[in-house]
Task: structure prediction
Amino acid sequence: MAVIDTIEIPPPREHEAPGQRRSGQVLIYLVALVLIGLMLAPVAYIILGGFRSNADITVDPSGFPSVWHWENYADVLVSPVFWQQVGNSTIAAVATTVLVVALGLMAAFALSRYSFRGRGLIYAIFTAGLMFPMTVAITPLYILVRNLGLTNSLVGVIIPQIAFALPITIIILVPFLAAIPHELQEAASIDGCSRLGFFWRMVIPLSMPGVITVGILAFIASWNSYMLPLFLLSTESTFTLPLGTQAFASQYSVDTARVLAFTSLSMIPALVFFSLFERRIVGGLTGAVKG
Amino acid sequence: MASARDTSPLTGDAARTPVADGGGAQPLPPSGQPAVGRRTNARRPRGTGMGSRLELAILIGPALIVFLAFVIFPVVIAAYYGFFSWSGFGPAVDFVGLRNYIVILTDPAFHEALGHNIFIAVMSLVLQGPIALGLALLLNRKLRYQSIIRVLIFVPYVISEVVVGVGWSLMLQTNGALNGLLNRLGLGALASDWLSDPAVAIWTLMVIITWKYIGFAVILFLAGLQGIPDELSEAAAIDGASYWQVQRHIVLPLLGPTIRIWAFLSIIGALQLFDLVWIIWGQYVASTAGTSTMATYMVANGRNAGSLGYGSAVAVVMFLISLVVALLYQRFLLRRDTAGAVTGGKR
Result:
């Protein structure tokens, strides 16, 4: 094996000296395995704990389910409160995603394909937004939304979420749109297509990879959002899933197994979305963070 | 911010410089619109016509208005209400000048919270940076099951802070799973009050933060690594450089801009930390367990104490601290990236 390796030119993408490859490969899989174990252990604890009974958990907190109790999950899945919160989270996440992509795409199109005075300044204003996560603005944001009469409504959550998702959306989309060849636009314009027509017919289809990236990021951020709903939503019927999970956890704090079942069910949508589009997200960010 | 304007009429080189440095010092990618003069289509003069202005207003107006109204304007409101003692009901009339700020800056509880924020910011860099770099290099190789491994490593980053908080706090209770596991392994002596012991709690928080946010660093680093052409590493490998030599002398320097962007976002995130602390420790335990942050201080003493004026003042202080950090960081670290693109990066 080693003999063959020494005369072999390293195949592309294997950046190591040939002799090290075999033992190195085993070590790498070992390291990967340990890391995955560490990353997943707490998640496994939550999911498996949902299948245990409270008595089991009290006696042996770190054990495996001896008898699989499906009723914890079943109880959560038939509770109308859970589904109402799923519905609220879905409405908020879908509305935020659709609107932030629409507004972001329009602004990014203007910033990347028009030349006008103040273009750099407007771009700088948007990127400056990245410096200030919602935390710093939450108290005044609460005052503002309350003055608009939008507390205890999902609209009051959705609009600020759009505003705070715009910077990253625009930063990721601008390089995508700028990379669309100018010749395409010229050809379209010769065929009598206006710049807005070009936007509809060419830019939107061509920028789909970037759109998917920002869309997934916006969806997950909204699905997981905690601080804004915490400030703005106080009626239980408007709770999103994170608020509901926390309320459930404190309300049924003695029923650990059911809390764990509720918690595992609430993380499914974000996980599904992310695993479907993981490759797209890394690919979409490549334009924005060229090394 | 002004520099973005200075450098905006860029040539194709812009695509090679980092865009997401978060602070505005980055150059704007070139517009697809060519410089005036290359235009041959006389039928539609671009850039200045009324129609064009209207298009621009329609395209950029909505985003700009929403952004200014809900991101920038709140900070302005905070600056105003920060000068009042105001419960949040009725008009703010009790003008107190700088009193809120004096109270904040002399409050030991705030100093403590600020100290925790600084500790968290520094330890996040120290703990997450090297681990994430290793993970990204690992995941950037051709591995079997690569995409499954990637998704699994990102799981903690994708699940919500509430799930993380509820799960970890149940696991770390005095009679929780971790202590149970230690007892079972005969390491019962190591069991402790992970959440409530002030000597341990902040380290517990660091472990949870590292676990939760390392995926973000890995995503950024992976994206950065994909931008590095394979040819460089291949050429070095043919010249006899070992895997580690290639990583150390070629990949790492080229990844510099991405690492600096990540560090920036990580520091800003650490200064604003709220969710995890609030969910796991809550308002009261956070201060006794030594995990309070500026944000939990703001909420506990602002909205929850019924004094929005004071809370606004804390928001302004946090804003200013973040702003100063951001500007210093840009001045001394990110500025190097624009210079490095010409000199250092090529070495």
